[in-house]
């Protein structure tokens, strides 16, 4: 592993921090480019990108520290050692989404249009950032005898390079979301609000659930990996929201369902009356 890419005198470039910077730059470029096309203020787009980054780092770190408090309680200063890695995906997701929502509301921007763009940026950023986690030796996988297994420092046996799996899957998700995003614009001339965001939530959560089977540093809750529980919750929320906001008209479906249910009840009542 290469936790430090290179040193120059007393100055060191950490691989995790380097790839986090690349991830931020890539995400910022997408937010700026697509937001500008949609007519949003460029300076505020850059502000939003920075605020979302800070929120994701803080949220991810807080959740990670909470899950691994036994380790950090012995040395509280290590909580601030962000360059060494250690971020929880769902903590970053929750606080990052909240900041995007709050900023959009404060600037009177349509949240779901911004969220669609942010989802593209997040998928790319996550893919890039996972290479930093791989080089830093964090988020390691379970032992394996497969030929592509990797030996990590201070760990026994060859391990699944689950960070690379996550990076590859997130890149695929980014490509799929990009196609959906472009098709929505070509079809209607504007972003179909929320479609890309909810698709990202569904796809990334589903990927997270299955990739957790290969991770070795997961927190357990009643014998089940906490990340998988959260992934199922996020997947369900994304699927329900996708249906409610985009795929179908929930209110119309509900009226049709109630109408059919009432007609069935009426037929049953008539059949009982006829028998009498």
TrEMBL record:
Enzyme Commission code: 2.5.1.145
Keyword rRNA-binding tagged: no
Protein name: Phosphatidylglycerol--prolipoprotein diacylglyceryl transferase
Pfam families: LGT
Molecular-function GO term, any one: phosphatidylglycerol-prolipoprotein diacylglyceryl transferase activity
Keywords: Cell membrane, Membrane, Transferase, Transmembrane, Transmembrane helix
Any one biological process term the GO annotation gives: lipoprotein biosynthetic process
Compartments reported by the entry: Cell membrane
A cellular-component GO term for this protein: plasma membrane
Task performed by this protein: Catalyzes the transfer of the diacylglyceryl group from phosphatidylglycerol to the sulfhydryl group of the N-terminal cysteine of a prolipoprotein, the first step in the formation of mature lipoproteins.
Its membrane topology: Multi-pass membrane protein
Source domain of life: Bacteria
Family, similarity comment: Belongs to the Lgt family.
Membrane-spanning segments: 12-33, 45-67, 79-102, 114-142, 162-182, 194-214, 226-245
Pathway: Protein modification; lipoprotein biosynthesis (diacylglyceryl transfer)
Signal peptide: none
Species lineage: Bacteria, Candidatus Woykeibacteriota
């Amino acid at each position: 592993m290469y936790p430090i890419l290179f040193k120059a005198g007393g100055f060191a470039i950490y691989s995790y921090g380097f790839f986090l910077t690349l991830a931020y730059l890539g995400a910022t470029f997408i937010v700026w480019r697509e937001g500008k096309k949609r007519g949003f203020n460029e300076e505020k787009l850059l502000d939003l990108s920075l605020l979302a980054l800070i929120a994701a780092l803080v949220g991810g770190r807080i959740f990670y520290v909470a899950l691994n408090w036994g380790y950090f309680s012995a040395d509280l200063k290590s909580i601030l050692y962000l360059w060494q890695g250690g971020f929880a995906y769902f903590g970053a997701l929750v606080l990052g989404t909240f900041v995007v929502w709050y900023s959009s509301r404060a600037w009177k921007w349509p949240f779901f249009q911004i969220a669609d763009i942010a989802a593209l940026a997040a998928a790319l950023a996550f893919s890039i950032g996972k290479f930093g986690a791989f080089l830093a030796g964090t988020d390691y996988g379970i032992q394996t005898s497969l030929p592509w297994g990797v030996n990590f420092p201070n760990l026994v046996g060859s391990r699944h390079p689950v960070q690379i799996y996550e990076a590859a899957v997130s890149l695929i998700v980014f490509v799929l979301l990009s196609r959906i995003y472009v098709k929505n614009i070509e079809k209607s001339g504007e972003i179909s609000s929320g479609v890309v965001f909810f698709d990202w939530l569904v796809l990334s959560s589903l990927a997270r659930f299955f990739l957790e089977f290969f991770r070795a540093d997961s927190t357990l809750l009643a014998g089940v990996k906490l990340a998988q529980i959260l992934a199922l919750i996020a997947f369900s929320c994304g699927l329900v929201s996708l249906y409610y906001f985009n795929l179908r008209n929930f209110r119309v479906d509900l009226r049709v369902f109630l109408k059919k249910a009432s007609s069935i009840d009426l037929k049953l009542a008539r059949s009982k009356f006829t028998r009498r």
